[in-house]
Structures are given as structure tokens and as C-alpha cells.
């Protein structure tokens, strides 16, 4: 059997693939955080809970409404995104004129409420969501076995990331968003309805998290705490990439997933901490993040 | 309704009012900056707000744009009271605002900056017209907005509100820190805009730049208008004005 540094090639590729898939989730989630932070300046601590809500909505939709996976992929982000819009309109807007740390506290509280409610209703042990039939099975690539669903997750997550990047960097609406991020008051003086832009941006960021949640449902156990454990890593990814950089969030997410995968092969004990080590190094060498603009 | 006072025989004095500010007070947090500002501008006029730093000229423009924390009094734009109008609706009354700090967006290139402000009225200049008026901007249209020189950034900040169809321009310190040759070019732009029938409120420190362009001058001090001088009265009152402005 082929080996590299004494590690079977299959194991290496398997872990790299796992890492890449984790990375795709990091990318999707940190992208949403970056978009929200850019315009609202709020660190959305409810992001993990909103991701979890996405997975749960897909699960409950399947169980009680017969909502199939493909529909869930479309409907759940809309529903959870609408919840985000409600949160922005009813809660975040009221505190936007005071220190943004209050926004952090508020979203943290919301995350606890969402999690706690679902723990009460469903307990902490996770349920599993069936892999959709069309994506069952896998390919034998010769050097490893690639489950079809995982390939789909990678493709879908990257497609949504690229779509978001395109919308923000290449369209007129995106130009409003970028300009609003820099100077919302001036944008409003130009006649742009900035409060509406803020609401839609938050809704979109939340919808991204929910989309990631639906994608995740068939591969990770769906439990009320699935978001909070992931969110800590995602925050580290955002710090490494630099707050507010779209492309940075995507690339850093993928790269950190890969690094985590590699570490699992060569030194498994450090796999859970390696991202934080990278974060510490980046903070020491480039405090604004790899892709962040110097303040 | 205040009855317009008869003025000197300038053409503009018979034109309808485009902007009337009455007893305007403005606040940032607890700071009370404007203490009852009164002035009016007629269609097609170019009016300056002169005064020392801190007199409240920038705040007056920002209050008109609803960019201060709190304001009271009356601001009538084109016959509409706007004191309770949300900030993003002010521009739609045909107001173009060019802030003191220019407000060029670093994450947008020159052309994106130009195309950014939404069109508020028909009759704005086309992109081609604008590039004809500001050839430098055409050459640098793909550069990030903040890579331009100070003068070019100022041109860009003015150019982008000309596209929107705004016919009331609020321009804040557009010559500040710019080389004389650029200041002269800006003066030529203002003459062209006036010829197009635009109404301009110019906050200016550079009195020599403003004097030959303006129809009337308002002098501000301590958050109030303390004097009004027409272009015709200017020669005899120049000494007095210099004393007030401390130039």
C-alpha cells in the first residue's frame, strides 16, 4: 500500500476530504458572520444557533410535514432568514445606536434561548437525518472512496460562497453593501434606504447559516448544541481571515478545514486546537487578519 | 409664511425658493450646535455660508441632510417641509450632498463610486458628460476611489452627485487643501453648473474662491446667521467681512 511519511495514502486523502468538507462549513458560516459584521458591526453570536435551527427545521420539516431535502434546502433558509429579519427589526434595531457590544450580548442571549428551548423539547442527544436518495452511495476514486453526499456538500457550499462573493463584489446591490459598510450615513444621504439594507443583510447572513445547517443535517448529528461547538471554531476562522473580508472568509474557512484534517493525520492530539494556534500566530503577526485591511 | 423681502435687482431674486431654513437648531448628543439658523436660497442661486471654523456651517448642511442626532425648526425644500423626513428621502427631493471629508469609498473603484448614488430625478448628467467635464476621472475609472489624489477625489465627490439629477447641491469645503490650479478648475466647474441652472449652497473657507462665483453670502457665527451680503454689496463690505472671518 502506498504511504507518505509512513501514513497510508488513503487515510491521508480521507482526512483531507473530511477537512475540506469541514472547511466548506467554516467558509459558509464565517462568510455570513463577515457580511453581518461588515454592515451591522454586530458579532452575531446567534450564528451557530441559526445554523442549528436550519438543521432542525429540515429534520422537523421532514418528520412532520414531509418536506423533502431539496425543498428544505430552499425553504428552510427562507424561513430562518425571515426569523433573522424579525430579530433585526424587533431587537437589534433598537440597540444599534449604542455600543455594538450590546448586539453581541443580545445575540448571545438569543442563542442560549434557541438552544435551551430545543434541549427542553428534544433533549441533547442528536437525531440523524437521512441522506437524500439521489445522493446516496459514492464513487471509488481508486485511491479512496468518496461518498456522493459529501461531494455534493462541497460543491453546493462552494457554489453558494462564490454566488455571495459575486453578489457583493460585482453587482450594484453589492456596491451599496460595501459602501454602506464604510459609511452608512453618507449612503443614506445619497438616498439609499440603509435601514432596509441592514435588515436584508442580517436576514441574508442568517439564511446562509440555515443553508449550512440543512447541508450539515445528513452528515452531522442534528442536536441543539451542534451550532455552539462549531461557532467557536468559526470565530477563530473569522479572526484569522480578518473581519469583513468576503473572499478572506471563504479561503480561510477552506484552508483551516484542510489544516485541521492534516493535523488529524499527523498529530491527532492537536487536531482540535490547531486552528487556535494558527489564530494566535496570525494575531501576533498580522492583527487585522490575513485578508483584513489595516485599521 | 414669510413674505420675501425685496432685494437688489439680481435675476435670482425673482426665482422661486428652493430652500428655506427657519429657526434651525441642531444637536449632536447633548451638544447644541445650531441656535436658530435662518436663510433661504432661490432656484439657480449660488449662495455661500462663510464663517470661522466651528461656526456651524458644516452642521447646517448636515442638518439639512438629516445627518445630525436631533434638529428642530423648519427646513423647506422645494416647497416641502422636511423636518420629519427620513434621511434617505431627502436626496429624492433633488438634493446632492458633497461632504467635507469627501466620502470616497475605498472598497469601490472610481466608476463604482460615480455610479453609487441612486438617480433621484431625471435630467442628471450622463456618465459621458461627467467624464467630459472631469477627464482625469475617465483615465482612472478602474482605480480604487481612495487611490486618487486629493483633487481628483474632490472632483469625484462632486461628479457623483451630478449624475443623480439633483438640482440643489450642498458643497462642503470643496477647495480645502487643494492646489491653486485644482481650485481654479473647481471654480470653472461651478460656473458650468450654475449655467445649467443648478442651485448651490457652498460652505467655503476660501473667500477669494467664493467671492466671484456667489450671488449672496451668509456669514455664520456661534451657530447663527449674523449677516447677509449680496454680491453687489461685497466691495464696500469686504473690510468688515475680513474682520468677521478673521482672514
Characterization of the model:
Chain B: Pfam families: ABC_tran. Chain B: One of its GO terms (molecular function) is ATP hydrolysis activity. Chain B: Keywords: Amino-acid transport, ATP-binding, Nucleotide-binding, Transport. Chain B: Belongs to the ABC transporter superfamily. The complex is a heterodimer of chains A (295) and B (247). Helix content of chain A is 70%, strand content 3%. Chain A has helices at residues 9-40, 47-65, 69-90, 101-122, 148-170, 172-182, 184-189, 194-216, 226-241, 246-266, 274-285, and strands at 3-4, 7-8, 138-140, 145-147. In chain A, β1 and β2 (7-8) form a beta hairpin. Chain B has one domain: P-loop containing nucleotide triphosphate hydrolases (Rossmann fold, 3-Layer(aba) Sandwich). Chain B contains 9 helices and 10 strands. In chain B, the strands form 2 sheets. In chain B, strands 6-7-8-3-9-10 form a 6-stranded mixed sheet, with helices on both faces. Chain B has a 4-stranded antiparallel sheet with strand order 2-1-4-5, with helices on one face. The A-B interface holds A 172, 175-176, 178-179, 181-183, 185-194, 293 and B 65, 67, 87-92, 97, 99, 103, 105-108, 112, 115-118, 120, 161, 164.
Write a brief structural summary.
The complex is a heterodimer of chains A (295) and B (247). In chain A, 70% of the residues lie in helices and 3% in strands.
Low-confidence stretches of chain A: none
Overall body shape of chain A: globular
Q: Name the quaternary structure.
A: heterodimer
Q: Which CATH C-level class of chain A is it?
A: Mainly Alpha
In CATH terms, what is the architecture of chain B?
3-Layer(aba) Sandwich
CATH superfamily caption of chain B: P-loop containing nucleotide triphosphate hydrolases
**What's the architecture of chain A, going by CATH?**
Orthogonal Bundle
Q: Give the overall silhouette of chain B.
A: globular
